[in-house]
Amino acid sequence: MEKLRNFLDKIKPHFQKGGKFHFLHSTFDAFETFLFVPNKVTTTGSHIRDAIDLKRTMSVVILALIPPLLFGMYNVGYQYYKAIGQDASFLETFWFGFLKVLPIIVVSYISGLSVEFLFAQIRGHEVNEGFLVSGMLIPLIMPVNIPLWMVAVATIFAVIFGKEVFGGTGMNIFNPALLARAFIFFAYPKHISGDSPWTYGLTEGIKTIDGFSGATPLANAAAYHIDKIPDNLTLFFGLIPGSIGETSKLAILIGAFILLITGVGSWRIMLSTILGGLFMGLIFNLFSANPFMQLSPITHLLMGGFLFGTVYMATDPVTASQTNIGKYIYGFLIGSFGILLRVINPAYPEGMMLSILLMNAFAPLIDHYVVEANIRKRVKRWSINQKNI
Amino acid sequence: MTKIIKLKKGLNIPLKGKPLDFWISSDPVAEVGICPDDFISLTPKPLIKENEKIKAGSPLFFDKDRPEIIISSPVSGTVKQILRGPKRKIEYFIIEADANIEYDDRFSSINFDSLSPEEIKDFLLKSGLWAFLKQRPYNIIPDPNKKPEAIFISAFDTAPLAPDMEIILKDEAKYMQAAINIFKKLIDVPIFVGLKANKNSVFEQMKGININYFGGPHPAGNVGIQIHHIRPINKGEIIWTIRPEDLVIIGKYIINKKYDASRIIAITGSQIKQTGYVKTILGANVNSFLKDENIIDTNNRFITGNVLTGRKIDRNGYLGFFDRMISVIPEGNKYEFLGWALPGFNKFSLSRTFFSWLNKKKEYVIDTNYHGGERAYVVTGQYEQVLPMDIFPQYLVKAAIVKDIDKLEKLGIYEVVEEDMALCEFVCTSKIEVQKIIREALDLIRKEMS
């Protein structure tokens, strides 16, 4: 490591002010701090600092995304071989999915990080770690058949208009990964809805066995084909069609466990989102106007992207409510609107994406009222006091 | 019926190097340094020239903006140097101390029982004892012409490696009572003393004070936190605070008629072989009690005060005016290969992202490294975990960054000073300089209000 350090120290002056590669200073900085935690010491304020930094926080989220990612890869292969009616070994199945998913991840990272580095360079900032997570989230909420150029366009759109125009990581209003998905959903709806995008090859018209439809459980529910929805256990383990990372609730719960035990993900948001979902599911049960409304709230939680959105998207600290009380309200509304949109909106069965984006927009308002309550209490105390004087 | 105020939020950083109940010997103090920066918003004007003689308790300098505020010399001797930094700013008054301290006898014949409130104020100002008082908001030396709502004293310290105040104050009850009595005669306001829950204190025997008990982790011992829970400061109000060991100095002047600035401090930190307590004097050169053979390694940071709020000093620097401890910790000026990715059994964090959280009993050596670069705010809810106040800390800091005075007032800026939010700075993932930002906001408001 000594050699690497010495090499970095040797080339460092070229990237500093006056050096010939100064225009690449952010890039150099990003790689240097990736390899080595800087030797910078405290100068003002507290002499010691917590060991955590944004790199560590983001690494934990990436770690928590690994279980749904690995399962997603396996499931891509599983759905494919199921569709063509062929038997395949575990490794074959996984390898097939791995080869299909990997390009999406690579495209997402390359297109997104290019924009990030470019903006960091222009602004003279350090490169922020935020996209490391977004770059992994984007592939996980895509259907496997998504054209790669679409991933690139959506990612670039999301990073520029979702993040950089607001000032970069930490300043954005909407979750960039969800924005990328929403972009595709509204610009190229054919590629992200219906029955064919979720199983590899269906859009190219591969020959499937009789009776294979590729419809997601949610699509079946929206069409009132309640009998075609797999049982809760199958939904839970996740060998079903869907976006790459969303299908296995078990894998997502492992990720949730990592986020909760490290304290990186907000338990307040996760809990209240689930309660919100259950609440709205029960309300629909009371009305029971159609078969979708009669669905058990538990089944609702296990279908579609509800749990994935709850664990990885709603908890994004930048776009969520920032006050603790606000977090409860924010989560509860996401959960209930998610189910509401899903059941009431016939055009699009999955409401979670739109629900989270909607609440992203309202999170500052929720916080405003929470903070305002604190302010009112203080101002009231002042005025009582002034009367006494 | 005693009420215990139990605070849940906060954090005790498990640092290695707590002060043991051991007395460290000290050489006679040969040199004393007074740093005017210890007094917030004070511009020093010297009352004495270099190479002149001074007595203990004689005026050393005054505040340019408020000439009635005087700081006195803690020892007798010769003013060796008035050390100036950039823009001729005075950084230190350095006094070569006599072997036998000679005391200023201006007030030797004063009879304290017969003094009027005005005469007491006059005495405190002229003797330099007034400078031991602090005023909230802003944490400055109080304006003599404004009456406070109350006086607050915190009689325990929860900061990392902080000394046990009962060891420091064991034999001082008589002096503290004398000082309390003088304050009672000076102004008729309640005097609140915050004690640690479930622990005996010398204050319990004293008269003329209102005692409250506080439980919970740091910053429960911060006087600002105690004020917030007993009598929160409203806009336009003033509250005075004073530290118990400074009550002792005032009490000694009243009883013994001399400015005796000796005090007991703790020597702490992971780089100290034998931690403990030492009897020294305010402003003493740390060389007199900090010997090389008691220090591990050489790449260390010396801090007067605690590791969260203290001031960096040189190896042969001086004990701060308001400090009750010296902390010595390793410097962190080294690179760490892939440091952010290691399991981190030896790294302390409030979050549980390092495996160190599995071992709850461990004590840590924490160096001065930032452990990362400064970023925009991403994580939320961290500050709230370590600030036991009904305040939204992250909103307060954001309002301070954009200098929105109206918002700052409403969010409770008058109830905090930077030390109360030091833990927020410690835990911050984005490495935001919280204390500096809060201080700048307080200075700005003070400027705008005057």
Summarize the SSE layout with pairings.
The complex is a heterodimer of chains A (389) and B (450).
Chain A: H1 2-15, H2 25-35, E1 36-37, H3 54-84, H4 90-123, H5 130-140, H6 148-162, H7 176-187, H8 217-222, H9 232-237, H10 249-262, H11 267-287, H12 297-302, H13 306-313, H14 324-344, H15 352-388
Helix pairs in contact in A: 3-4, 3-5, 3-10, 4-5, 4-6, 5-7, 6-7, 7-15, 10-13, 11-13, 11-14, 14-15
Chain B: E1 4-6, E2 31-34, E3 44-46, E4 53-54, E5 59-63, E6 70-72, E7 77-84, E8 90-97, H1 117-127, E9 134-136, E10 150-154, H2 165-169, H3 173-186, E11 191-196, E12 210-215, H4 223-230, E13 239-241, H5 244-256, E14 262-268, E15 276-281, E16 300-304, E17 311-313, E18 325-330, E19 336-337, H6 382-386, H7 393-401, H8 405-411, H9 422-427, H10 434-449
Parallel strand pairs in B: 1-12, 10-11, 10-13, 11-12, 14-18
Antiparallel strand pairs in B: 2-8, 3-5, 4-7, 5-6, 7-8, 9-13, 14-15, 16-17, 16-18
Helix pairs in contact in B: 3-5, 7-8, 7-10
Please state how the strands of the largest beta sheet of chain B are arranged side by side.
1-12-11-10-13-9
N-to-C span of chain A: 68 Å
Sheet-strand content of chain A, in percent, reads under 5%
Extract low-pLDDT stretches of chain A: none
- The shape of chain B is globular
The 3D shape of chain A can be described as: globular
The biggest sheet of chain B, with number of strands, parallel, antiparallel or mixed sense and barrel status, is: 6 strands, mixed
Query: Biggest interface: chains and residue counts?
Result: A-B, 59 and 76 residues
Output the CATH topology of the largest domain in chain A. Answer: Ammonium transporter fold
Percent in helix of chain B: 10-25%
Helix content of chain A: 55-70%
**Total helical segments of chain A:** 15
Order of helices and strands of chain B: EEEEEEEEHEEHHEEHEHEEEEEEHHHHH
**Main beta sheet of chain A: strand number and arrangement?**
none
Number of H- or I-type helical stretches of chain B: 10
Radius of gyration of chain B: 22 Å
CATH class of the largest domain in chain A: Mainly Alpha
Quote the beta fraction of chain B. Answer: 15-25%
